[in-house]
Amino acid sequence: MTTEVSVIAITCHNFGFFLSYRVGSNMRSLVMSCIFYKSLRLSSAVKQQCATVQVLTLTSVGAERVFNAMMQGPWLVGAPLGFGVVVALIGLLFDAVILLLLQYLTTRDVPRAGQGLDAHTVPDGLMDEVCLGVHLMEKTLGVTFADATNPLLVSMRSGAAISRCPA
């Protein structure tokens, strides 16, 4: 897909320069004919002061400037626009790469996420230590988890580890 987009972009760019070349050639011809007709209308005194070489030099220099301006004109718009498109495409490419990398990194740990310790699968020795910690906290705080109104204590009370502790 990138190749097709690149070919289309280059074709459009080349067609734009072809059109500007044609317009520049036509404008060069118009400038040359205007200067030539202007030189024909000059008075005879002025014609004697200007040599034919000077008129031809003036004609060719003016015509070439117009032609070059038309040839380089599309770059004034095309170059910044092309640069912006390239920067945007590079940004999209890196966004896609980072998205795929993050998706890979987050999904590779998903099968292990369900393998955490459940209160029903905890060995009895560890459960005894948890129950001892709950009893110590109840004595220190002076509140039992059974009648707690603090949201933190309520969430702790709803845990399966506390429900297995003897009172």
From TrEMBL:
InterPro entries: ABC_transporter_C-like
Keyword annotations of the record: ATP-binding, Membrane, Nucleotide-binding, Repeat, Transmembrane, Transmembrane helix
Positions of transmembrane segments: 75-102
Molecular-function annotations in GO: ATP binding
Main location class: membrane
A cellular component annotation (GO) from this entry: endomembrane system
Compartmental location: Endomembrane system
Keyword flag Repeat: yes
Topology relative to the membrane: Multi-pass membrane protein
Record protein name field: SSD domain-containing protein
Organism: Phytophthora oleae
